[in-house]
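Priority: medium. Attachment 1 of 2:
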């Protein structure tokens, strides 16, 4: 919340983006309650509110203080009005716009509010909020607040199933996407089995009987709504053939488990995608802890077998991360190659054990449970 408050001092418009139900509205209301001055809240999911804003200039120009515009992509024409209002001398208003990160939202706001808007993203609950002692619950249920706090595993799993259905049947059509819900659900479920793997558009295209551009469009829908992370490959100037396709991760482990039909801890421990689930969960926690932006995050892989699960580039320095569902990870040949070929500042092996310890020069094993103590955020 303090970050948003600081941003609103510097920018007339701040966009808080993230998946549906991730907690954007709750955070915005907390900010409004602490705001020194007048506030106004507009829920653009409400048809009556959208009717009030059919002429947004008339509704907004007389306001002072802070205006919260929730699900702002539902009123596309409002961005031009925000540009005019934010350009007024002495601009008496600040606007916090909340959106589910649709392509329409990003395109319209970037075109009309260049230099006036700052984007920030809200991820799901993390270890820094819920504590390392509840890491197992967070991994199984994911970071959507209602899924995490549900009174039982069954209630949590049902909430996630309902989320998937609502997203496919209501949210996707509201973005102007005309893909049948059954088609996108089948794609999403198939993608769950490829979580943590390099994207193979040709294989998906064959399965659906369509072109690669079509299945890439399906993937983009999930990425633009913050449900999937498309991790770009790093290309180093080496005399080695390197993988050029992106790697795909679900951003929320709970949704991944729902689409893999995993409802309990016991089912997760027996599932063949256990290691991949851990990799994605731990990677999201590390990215959030570092405060790394999407454009700073990569993976690296060669056709000779050397690879690095996560490469984060910050101020021209390179930091490597491997993720092992093990209590005693070891330094491998692949890790040594990555350290040398990529000139890493250090390599951290994030594992499922209790303790952190050195593995070698510039390399250490870090227990995810101890991440808050042993892994410092970027300055």
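Attachment 2 of 2:
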């Amino acid at each position: 919340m303090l970050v948003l408050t600081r941003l609103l001092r510097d920018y007339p418009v701040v966009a808080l983006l993230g998946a549906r139900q991730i907690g954007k509205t709750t955070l915005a209301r907390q900010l409004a309650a602490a705001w020194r001055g007048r506030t106004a809240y507009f829920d653009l999911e409400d048809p009556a509110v959208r009717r009030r804003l059919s002429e947004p200039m008339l509704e907004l120009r007389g306001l002072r203080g802070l205006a919260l515009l929730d699900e702002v992509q539902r009123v596309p024409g409002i961005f031009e009005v925000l540009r005019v209002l934010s350009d007024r001398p002495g601009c008496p208003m600040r606007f916090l716009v909340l959106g589910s990160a649709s392509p329409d939202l990003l395109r319209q706001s970037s075109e009309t509010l260049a230099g006036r808007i700052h984007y920030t993203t809200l991820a799901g609950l993390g270890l820094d909020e819920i504590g390392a002692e509840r890491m197992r619950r967070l991994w199984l249920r994911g970071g959507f607040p209602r899924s995490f706090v549900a009174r039982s595993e069954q209630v949590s799993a049902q909430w996630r199933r309902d989320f998937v259905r609502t997203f496919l049947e209501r949210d996707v059509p509201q973005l102007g996407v005309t893909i049948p819900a059954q088609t996108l659900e089948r794609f999403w479920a198939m993608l769950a089995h490829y979580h943590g793997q390099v994207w193979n558009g040709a294989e998906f295209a064959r399965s659906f009987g369509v072109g690669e551009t079509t299945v890439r469009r399906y993937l983009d829908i999930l990425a633009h709504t913050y449900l999937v992370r498309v991790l770009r490959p790093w290309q180093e100037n080496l005399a080695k053939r390197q993988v050029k396709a992106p790697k795909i991760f679900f951003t929320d482990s709970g949704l991944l488990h729902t689409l893999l039909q995993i409802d309990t801890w016991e089912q997760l421990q027996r599932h063949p995608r256990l290691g991949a689930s851990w990799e994605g969960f731990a990677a999201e926690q590390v990215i959030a802890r570092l405060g790394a932006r999407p454009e700073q995050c990569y993976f690296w892989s060669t056709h000779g077998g050397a690879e690095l699960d996560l490469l984060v580039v910050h101020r021209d320095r390179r930091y490597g991360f491997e993720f092992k569902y093990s209590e005693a990870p070891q330094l491998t040949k692949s890790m040594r190659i990555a350290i040398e070929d990529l000139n890493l500042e250090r390599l951290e092996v994030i594992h499922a054990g209790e303790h952190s310890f050195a593995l070698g020069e510039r390399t250490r094993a870090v227990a995810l449970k101890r991440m808050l103590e042993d892994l410092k955020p970027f300055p």
